[in-house]
Amino acid sequence: MHARVSATDAARGAIEALTRAHGRLMFFQSGGCCDGSSPICLTVGELPLSPHDLKLGEVAGAGFYIDEELYERWNRPSFVLDVSPGA
Question: Is the CB of residue 25 less than 8 Å from the CB of residue 44?
Answer without folding.
Answer: yes
